[in-house]
Amino acid sequence: MKAHSKRYKESGKQVDENKFYQLKEAITVLKKFKQPKFDASMDLNFHLNVDTKKSDQMVRATVILPHGTGKKIRVAVFCKGEHERIARDAGADHVGGLELIDKVSEGFLDFDCAVATPEMMRDLSKLGKVLGPRGLMPSPKTGTVTNDIAKAIEDVRRGKVEFRADKQGGVHLSVGKMSFNEDQLYDNATRIIEAINEAKPASVKGKFICSLSVSSSMNPGLNITV
């Protein structure tokens, strides 16, 4: 078992492991922790009451955070012709058609989000095994397969993030940076919780969010009342 750092242990003294905190109270506690030398992230960790083996219980959606993510998002756009100019004008970091697909197939993954026009999806499908496991495959459900390239890029820049439940029913999302003030973190976290609840499949009965915790990078987590 990996030993925790002195900072982690000191932070742990401020946490009641048997307590379920209100979200705002938990954020106040997190802000009191001694943070690492980098600008740490605050994360929400959900365990959902879903059976991901059932197609009607898949949880996947997007949410735009009111105060953004605090991170510069690198956007790759797979498109052709006039859409390439639009993508560059909108601030995309990487733009191209078949040549960009070939570059990615050779190992290039220097981007955080991928957008594609519908006409590119047939060619892009061969990158499914590369982009899929990394959560980078464009999808109509998340608005990343579209002819409105400029809007898709604008949404990402504004703080649009995608979430999906893993095989264990877990969803893990960054709320923002610990350099954000408490109100900004609370607004972003509240919006994420709302979005998770809105994504509840109709076939799921009873309590949807089984458990929820909040944590910051390299520090202990706190259980949240849900």
Q: Keywords, please?
A:
single chain, 226 residues, alpha/beta, four-stranded antiparallel beta sheet, three-stranded parallel beta sheet, 8 helices, 21% strand, globular
Structure in a nutshell:
The chain is α/β, with parallel strands linked by helices and 226 residues long. It has eight helices and nine strands. The mean pLDDT is 92.
Topology summary:
Blueprint: H1 6-12, H2 23-32, E1 41-48, E2 60-64, E3 75-78, H3 82-89, E4 94-96, H4 98-105, E5 113-116, H5 121-124, H6 128-131, H7 149-158, E6 160-164, E7 170-177, H8 182-198, E8 209-216, E9 222-223
Parallel strand pairs: 3-4, 3-5
Antiparallel strand pairs: 1-7, 1-8, 2-6, 8-9
Question: Can you characterise this structure?
Answer:
It is a single chain. With 226 residues, the protein is an alpha/beta fold. Helix content is 30%, strand content 21%. It contains eight helices and nine strands.
**Order of adjacent strands in the largest pleated sheet:** 7-1-8-9
Total E-strand runs:
9
Strand content: 15-25%
Secondary-structure element series: HHEEEHEHEHHHEEHEE
Helix content: 25-40%
Give the biggest beta sheet.
4 strands, antiparallel
Secondary structure tally, helices:
8
Structural class by helix and strand composition: alpha/beta
Globally, the shape reads globular
Assembly level: single chain
Distance between the termini: 30 Å
From the alpha-carbon coordinates, what is the Rg to the nearest angstrom?
19 Å
Poorly predicted runs of 5 or more residues: none
The whole-number mean of residue pLDDT values reads 92
